[in-house]
Write a structure and sequence with these properties.
Layout lengths: L2 H25 L3 H8 L3 H25 L20 E6 L2 E6 L4 H12 L1
Antiparallel strand pairs: 1-2
Helix pairs in contact: 1-3
Length: 117
């Protein structure tokens, strides 16, 4: 069996184990209860959990060593380049209402209610 095929098979198994662990957590049941329902021993569950965690740690370590973090300076957008997200503008016929960003829900509801009249 080639090394890459063996690696793919191992990753597939680890992925299945990872999904099992996530499923158990999502169900919110204890490890003991989950193992009983799946007919696994506790030692099998914890062995698989340990294997998954080690694989994730190795992958993270590999990523950190090969992809150093780099920061880039970004220009500050000028006032002219900003989109008009600072306010909500409602036009109804000849009436135009501008609601500033950060207005409370109650204020917005009151304006809309007033426009219905």
């Amino acid at each position: 069996m080639s090394t890459s095929l063996a690696c793919m098979q191992k990753n597939g198994i680890l992925n299945e184990w990872y999904e099992d662990i996530c499923e158990r957590k999502a169900q919110g049941i204890t490890v003991k209860e989950w193992c009983r329902l799946r007919h696994y021993s506790l030692s099998t569950y914890y062995y698989r959990q340990r294997q998954v965690m080690q694989a994730l740690e190795q992958r993270l370590s590999y990523m950190e060593s090969n992809d150093p973090v780099q920061f880039a300076a970004l220009p500050v957008p000028s006032q002219d380049n900003r989109t008009s997200c600072d306010a909500i503008v409602i036009r109804l016929g000849e009436i135009e209402v501008e609601i500033p960003a950060g207005a409370s829900r109650e204020s917005i509801a009151a304006v809309i209610e007033a426009l219905k009249c």
